Amino acid sequence: MTNSFEGAGEVGSSDTSLKVIANRCAAGSCPTIYESASGSLVVQGFIVKSQNTGIDVPAGEALVEIPAELLAEAMRNLS
Q: Does a structural domain hold residue 3?
């Protein structure tokens, strides 16, 4: 499967400012959803080891786990 959006892959440009859309704590070191300058979403969560899932994760990508409520909060905040 190929990525169809321009921001796909490792973020390394000079403009990587992130805006918090939703998080579950005030400290910022917990699962959080951010919006990038390009309008895509960046997710901070707990790493899920792909070998335990049976999913083939390409180099440069990772599976992360976040609470479902966090995604719901992000969707409310984006609309």
A: no
